[in-house]
Task: structure prediction
Amino acid sequence: MPRILRNSHGWRLAAIIFSSLALSGCDRPDPWRLVEMEDRLPPLAFDMTSVQDGRTVTAETFRGKIVVLEFGYTFCPDICPTTLATLSRVLRDLGGRAGDVRILFVTVDPDRDAAKDLKRYVESFAPQVVGLRGTPNQLASLARRYRVAYSVTPAPDPADIEVMHTPTLFIFDRDGRIRLLSPRIDDPGSIEHDLRRLLDEPRHGGTET
Amino acid sequence: MTGRFDAIAQWVAGRRHRVLVAAVLLLGAAEFMAVRLYPASLPLWMPYEFSWGVFLATSFAALWYLRGFASCPDSRKPRRWRIAAYFAGLFLIYAAMQTHIDYAAQHMFFIHRLQHLVLHHSGPFLIALGDPGGVLVRGMPRRLKRLLDATWIRGAMAMVQQPAVATLLFVGLIYLWPAPPVHFYAMLDPRLYTLMNWSVTIDGILFWALILDPRPAPVARLGYGPRALLCLAIMPPQILLGAAVAFSTRDHFQVYAICGRIMQMTGLQDQQLAGLILWIPPSMMSVVGAIIVLNFLRLNDERVEATAMSGSMIRA
Result:
């Protein structure tokens, strides 16, 4: 053990250094307001069909854009439309900069969400919302990648079909790296604030997946 | 039953080690591809996330045991209940990590605690009860045997199995991973998640192997009495943590809401159940462990007495 740590002065010194380091971390003028993720989940990667043009799209398609990933379904009674409405409001407030943001709305109920229904649904919110539909395996591997739970419990009466999914939003930077999570959907101010910060960042050009 | 087990062990021992390795790798690759490409079509007994580490570790733990068993002279073959305990422990650990139980554990706090009960307590407990060390060493390739004999490995083992260190590690890990700020990222970051599960499993095996060694000290690292005390020493901190989690009125583990719970349960209900799981079953395991150790003590005393009377050698 270094001598300086053997006496109490040393410990005090260490404590001061440590706390000033910790404080300087909080001292940043403009901290993130959502949950910081900084590469704690893998970079964006998927393989799905865009309902707008029927083409296969991957994470590469959206490189250079800030991506907000949302799971949901068109029959969703409250959470999904509320989230999409909130996000549309944020996009409106971002004005011209909203062009660099894409909301990827992934249906967890591809059986009932036909491409044309999903297209009509997402287009009713904002032009930056992209509806994505995948095969059950494509959907399951994207959900597993981000540790997302979802399930569709079939029932003879369509009104009784139970769909479960997380409302969390996953936010990626222009390089496809995960940066933020938004666990709550009722806080457009924080989402807008953090999206602006991400939009200010230059693209690093890293395209590793 | 023993006959069939003998036959399987003989069959495995009859294959060349290289062939066994190739078969395991092939099976692993097939499973890896299936899990990667067809996540939605997998039966629940298939892995949710495939782990080469867990797959290879459990496969070779089973194969080397079978090989070692086949080469044991009859007088040194382990008893049937030890074999059963060893494979039960191995199976529990595999099932907890490499089936869709892992999906449930990622999405419900109380199931996560059940998973850790298996990984840190009951799985390693059963493996240690099986006392597989000697048989495994017989069955593993010679090069690995030499590596395990290396002084730095022996030194590291002696250090982590030093009673104070072992207790601190065991309880420390139980406090570290559920600490809310740590837990949040451990459940999301796949690398931390892997580290968490491996750390508790390895620590569990080291700890329970120290406790459940059937031999007396000094062949075993610790005498029977101190080992029984160690079992009891790890109880109060776990009871305290379990009670704190169970009685808390605030949901401290937001990560499950973020990833989505898979059962109709509020965060608080999930947390209360998890608290009870942190609290009660580990304490019961401690008591069972202490009783087993005391029984070893009795058996050993009887053996010593018997040999003293007959004047023959003490067999460890």
Q: What stands out?
A: Residues 2-310 of chain B form one domain. Chain B touches chain A through 24 residues (CB under 8 Å). The two ends of chain B are 27 Å apart (CA to CA).
